Amino acid sequence: MQGTALGGQAGWLDWIANSAIGVAMRSELWLYPIVEVVHIIGFAVLVGSVVMFDLRVLGLSKDIAVTALARHLLRWGVTALLLIVPAGLLMFSAHPHDFASNEVFILKLSLIGIAGINAAVFHLGVYRSVSRWNTGAAAPGTAKVQAALSMVLWVTVVLCGRLLAYT
Prior knowledge:
transmembrane, about 0% strand, membrane
């Protein structure tokens, strides 16, 4: 039934589900929970880093240079992605048909994509003028709107992640 609903995706989803990793993720008692904890820790670090930066852009802790904070938090964000992505792929391999047909999962991935686009637009746009508002000055309105949007997007991504356990 899922294969019919997913059309041509069933082949590669079956391949993932029947792979040694997919089978291990379903059959080893502690593997899925351990991977899930790694995924959640990575998300906590990533979202924490993003929210700290966004709060600075919104005007908190104006004595901290935006550029210095960005450099510092970028390392944490990249490290978090090194935990999140592999762990997420492992979790997906356990139940690929369920995830691929789950609207909450698709929404979560879409929101992550939108958050990434928002970050790229921020860095290619208003962040280029950061020398004017690096310390002691308010960020431009556009930067504040993007920071607020970023926080809403990431909190919603976390919410979707939690809802996946119940859908």
